[in-house]
Amino acid sequence: MDELVANLSRDELKNLIQVFDVQIAVVIILLAFFTRNIVAKVILKIFDLFIKKKEKPEESEMYAPIKNMYIFIAFYLAVRILPIPIRLSIIMTSLFKSALVIFATKIINSTLLAGDSKLFKGRGKTRNEAVSNFISRIVRAIAWIIALYVILVFILGFTQINGLVAGLGIGTVIISLAAQDTVKSLFSGIAILSEKPFVIGDWIEIGEYAGTVIDISFRSTRIRAANNAVITIPNSTVTEEYVINWNKLKSRRFDANLHLSMDSVDPDKIKDIIKELKVVICSKDYVQRDTVYVGFNGISDYCYNIKIFVYVTETNYNRYLKVEEDLNCEFLNVLKKENVELAYPTQTVNVKNFENK
Q1: DSSP for 106-167?
Q2: Are 332 and 253 in contact, with CB atoms under 8 Å apart?
Q3: pLDDT for 8-44, tens place per residue?
Q4: Is 282 helix (H, G, I), strand (E, B) or coil?
Q5: Closest-CA residue to 150 (of 112, 113, 105)
Q6: pLDDT tens digit sequence for 287-343
């Protein structure tokens, strides 16, 4: 072996070393490519021991960033082994450090600064999902700004950062003046999250719009209407309009008017019908019995009117519709049992014939 090396020329030895370096670089890249999933799972398993978050590694938001960072590190090490010019080596090192900062920021944003992170959960209190998501977005934006600053100043050596910040400050003022409505909606969003007139999942009415709240962001509130359409409302509009939150109700009022036909009911029988209606209503578990009212409250040109109102404990709108259906069917059964028909508006026209004189 020593004689073989001694017989090799300097150029041949140099070429042999370069080929050997290329082989090592290829092995590193291939090894990283085939082990990336295993390494990512092991890292996530170790990480889960500290945060005590039970989920499969493949379902974690960190899974893809960790794999990408592992492959990138392997490529960097492989390139560093190869004999490359010093200038290219400096550029590769700067790119490597910048990529590490980006990957680290992405991983932090995916775990510690996520809306469902323990960082945004109040101790001993029910977590407000909308507030958590809102604060999470702000903190994550700040994290990216810090990452960009670190890359520009400490890695790329951008020395004119003060001028850039001043320019950005002037630009921010100009943009703020040009987008006053957006800024207004932003502060309105903060007011909504602090006062909490509604939260995600509530059924609300805002002016002429109604639906279930599905998201509260910096600028707008999104609701899903009954027809499944998504309506986006600027937060400035939300704070200026009246807001009805139906989920805050402790009970709902049910109203009905029964117009009884004069031809099918005897006036003396109305009291018996009222009693039967009260019995039927009070037999329902969802009825607040002390609020039941059934009364004979008027006579029109074509009917006797029975007024009914009662408060029910079912506040969910979809289930309340079932309550309405149930009560209306019970009313029809009572009227059918008593052989009473409902009236409809009628008008009598008298025609008189005049003899020709």
Answers
A1: HHHHHTTTSTTSGGGPPTTS---HHHHHHHHHHHHHHHHHHHHHHIIIIIS---THHHHHHH
A2: no
A3: 455 555 565 666 777 787 888 888 888 888 888 888 7
A4: helix
A5: 105
A6: 999 999 999 988 887 888 999 999 999 888 788 889 999 999 999 999 998 888 888
Can you tell me whether residue 193 is helix, strand or coil? Answer: helix
Distances (CA, A) of 239 to 147, 185, 213, 247: 35, 9, 15, 18
Structure token pair of residue 61: 């938001």
Domains of the chain listed by start with CATH number: 2-121 (no CATH), 184-248 (2.30.30.60), 252-337 (3.30.70.100)
d(Cα 95, Cα 326) in Å, to the nearest integer? 69
CA angle 236, 109, 123 (to 5 degrees): 75
Which pLDDT band holds residue 125 (cuts at 50, 70, 90)? very low
Helix (H) / strand (E) containing 299? strand 293-299
Find out whether 299 and 257 touch, Cβ atoms under 8 Å.
no
Per-residue pLDDT reduced to its tens digit, 48-99? 766 656 667 666 777 777 888 888 888 888 877 777 777 777 887 888 888 8
**Nearest-10 crossing angle of helices 10-51, 63-81:** 160
Q: Tell me the CB-side half-sphere exposure of residue 323, using CA atoms within 13 A.
A: 24
Q: How many helices (H) and strands (E) does the chain have?
A: 10, 8
- Give the residue carrying structure tokens 């079912």: 314
Which of 315, 342, 181, 319 is closest to 260 using CA atoms?
Answer: 342
C-alpha span between 197 and 234 (Å, rounded): 15
